[in-house]
Amino acid sequence: MNLEEYCGIWVYLEVHEGRIAPVSLELLGAGRQMADKRGVPLAGLLIGEGVRDLAQTAFPYGADQVYLYDDPIFCDYRTESYMRAVIECVNKNKPEIILYGATSTGKDLASAVATDLETGLTADTTMLDVNAETGLLEASRPAFGGNIMATILCKKHRPQMATVRPKVMKALEPDTARTGEIIEETITLLEEDIRTKVLKIVRETKEKVRLDEADVIVAGGKGLGSKEGFALIHRFAEKIGATVGASRDAVEAGWIDHDHQVGQTGVTVTPKIYFAIGISGAIQHLVGMRNSGLIIAINKDPNALIFQSCHYGIVGDAFEIVPLLMEAFQKK
Ligand code: FAD
């Protein structure tokens, strides 16, 4: 493989309910920095039906170009049709790096593309950098149970690919004066060539927990002692209009649903304020919340690890401290 033939950084622009997904805009921000460092263009790759207008929305967020596949065959996401478009576009235009959001669609698509192109894929990345001279992507993610950060390199194949967790990169402030080039691509794909059909889309009826969009999170851990104890977290969150988060141990104890889990095997969050209550501060929890604006920890053990990673720490029993906080908020 001649690595020299590959140039430029791409972001797969995922479409959610008629808009470019926030994670894709975040990746354009990260991609812009890498493209500037490397001196190469940043392109978005947009696939769908009736998505032409969305292509324009990528430019204010940093894209120089958008490769566009707009065709009824892409009406619903299907691995086979989307991967065919990505592969064809890659073979034709040869990018050196492609970034995808680590969403269910992004993970599915990236792994299918990587398998077909026989290239490397770093999953669930939380840090990205590029070597300005060689173009080598440095994609880092927690490894060995979250005890270390591993930087994974793909030295011999192109494109280098990574899925990146939502909310770990920052989208640029949109610059509406910024424009770019839309490159229309077409692919000959027949419905009968695709082995899957979408018969019906059944929306989840359960209200979705939007931890990754919350401004304030009150998270509880094993220190709450029981499901009844954990109810204190719900009461506090309700009082201050926060979203409830949890450690894995609280989830595994059955006190709260997995949707609320923060951390390596849960959601990555960046609220303005994060309360960690009765949470010890294990690395697997910290990787999911350490970029929060303000971290306030309440723990009865003065040596708890969480106190090394918080902005304010209160040493004390949650069942005494939290009611006092609620009372104080009541007075405000
Ligand atoms: P504990 O570690 O038991 O801590 C409870 C804390 O509560 C203690 O510090 C204690 O001093 C304090 N406490 C006790 N009583 C009170 C009280 N009355 N008032 C105040 N404080 C009190 N964990 C996650 O959270 N998210 C993940 O995504 C995740 N993924 C993982 C992935 C892997 C591969 C592995 C191996 C582990 C993962 N873990 C994850 C688990 C993680 O290692 C810890 O076990 C977990 O975070 C501990 O949860 P905790 O802090 O609630 O419980």
From TrEMBL:
<dbReference type="InterPro" id="IPR014729">
    <property type="entry name" value="Rossmann-like_a/b/a_fold"/>
</dbReference>
<dbReference type="InterPro" id="IPR014731">
    <property type="entry name" value="ETF_asu_C"/>
</dbReference>
<dbReference type="Pfam" id="PF01012">
    <property type="entry name" value="ETF"/>
</dbReference>
<protein>
    <submittedName>
        <fullName>Electron transfer flavoprotein subunit alpha</fullName>
    </submittedName>
</protein>
<dbReference type="InterPro" id="IPR033947">
    <property type="entry name" value="ETF_alpha_N"/>
</dbReference>
<dbReference type="InterPro" id="IPR014730">
    <property type="entry name" value="ETF_a/b_N"/>
</dbReference>
<feature type="domain" description="Electron transfer flavoprotein alpha/beta-subunit N-terminal">
    <location>
        <begin position="9"/>
        <end position="198"/>
    </location>
</feature>
<dbReference type="Pfam" id="PF00766">
    <property type="entry name" value="ETF_alpha"/>
</dbReference>
<comment type="similarity">
    <text>Belongs to the ETF alpha-subunit/FixB family.</text>
</comment>
<dbReference type="InterPro" id="IPR029035">
    <property type="entry name" value="DHS-like_NAD/FAD-binding_dom"/>
</dbReference>
<dbReference type="InterPro" id="IPR001308">
    <property type="entry name" value="ETF_a/FixB"/>
</dbReference>
